[in-house]
Amino acid sequence: MPVSPAPPRAARTAHPVVRPTGEERTFAADELIVSKTDRRGVITYANDVFLRVSAYARDEVVGQPHNLIRHPEMPRAVFALLWETLAAGRELFAYIDNLAADGASYWVLAHVTPSYGPDGAVVGYHSSRRRPAPRAVERLRPLYRQLLAEERRHPNARAAVDASSALLTELVAAQAGSYDEFIWSVIDAEER
C-alpha cells in the first residue's frame, strides 16, 4: 500500500479528548495492526486493521502523533523505555493498552523497530502489533497498575517518568533480569 502523505499543517485538526468507556475490543489472531511513523513519532502510514480497531479514519491519523491512541492507564515508563530503546537503534517488544476514538481499549503485543533510509540513517519507525493472549494481559495489569500508582505520586511528568522507570527496572530485574527477558517470558507463557 502506498504511504499516504501527511496533510498540510493548516489542514490538521486538534482531536477532542477521548475518554475511556471501559469497553475492551480485540481483533483476530491472524491479523496484524501496522503503522509507520517519522522520527518524531508522527504517523505516516496505518493499515486497515489499525483503522478498524482504533475507530479512526485514515485522514484522522496520518500526520498525527502516534500517542493519539495512548490509553491514559498506560504507564509512561513503558513509552520512555520504548523511545530509549529505539534511540539506541534496537527493536522493542511491549504489551500496550491503546485507546480507540470511540473510547474502547484494545491490548496489543507491539514489535517496534527503527526504519532505515538508503544511507543507513533512521528515517522513522515501524510497528506491527498482534493480539496478545488474555493471560499475558492479566500478568501485565498488576505491573502497570504499580507503575501508574508510582507516577501519580509525583508532581510533574519528568519526576513521574523517572520514578516509574526506576520501579519498572527494579520489578523486572526481580522477575527476569532484564526487560527483554521479562517480555519474552510473558510471550513464552502466552504460547504454551
UniProtKB/TrEMBL annotation:
<dbReference type="InterPro" id="IPR000014">
    <property type="entry name" value="PAS"/>
</dbReference>
<dbReference type="InterPro" id="IPR013767">
    <property type="entry name" value="PAS_fold"/>
</dbReference>
<dbReference type="InterPro" id="IPR035965">
    <property type="entry name" value="PAS-like_dom_sf"/>
</dbReference>
<protein>
    <submittedName>
        <fullName>PAS domain S-box-containing protein</fullName>
    </submittedName>
</protein>
<dbReference type="Pfam" id="PF00989">
    <property type="entry name" value="PAS"/>
</dbReference>
<feature type="domain" description="PAS">
    <location>
        <begin position="38"/>
        <end position="89"/>
    </location>
</feature>
<dbReference type="GO" id="GO:0006355">
    <property type="term" value="P:regulation of DNA-templated transcription"/>
</dbReference>
